[in-house]
Amino acid sequence: MFRLFQYFALFALVVSCSDFNFKKTDQVQLLENEKMAIDWNSVDNWPTFESCEGNENIQSRIDCITSTIQLHCEERFKQNDLRQNDTLWVKLNVSNNGAMAMTFAQEADSLLVSVLEECASSLPKMIPALKRGQPVNCELRLPLIFRTLEVQ
Length: 152
Prior knowledge:
This protein is α+β, with helices and mostly antiparallel strands. The protein is built from four helices and five strands.
């Protein structure tokens, strides 16, 4: 009788093993799930100039970036005796290593474009945007408001 009980217990153990869920966690699936959970359309920290780094509020950081570019470019305007009172929308592409490229979202005078391109190339290097602690490429669309010499 004891032998029959041993066989029955062994049989029950073997059959019930299928009820245990010993699935191996698929690392690829975990990675895909993690990628799906990340909001790729936003960054954790916006790109910035070193002088603007203390601004934690997004709007104040963008205002600081805009005013830094404006002040830097207005000096170029004065050097070139360029008379311009205008708002220009620019796309500022900041790479993951801090390199910056400025493109214009609207048509502009060729002299103005050349002065702004010269200005963009001489701006200080930016601190790149961060996503989950890693530097990433980022594009900002900013209004640059120029109030320089009186337009005649």
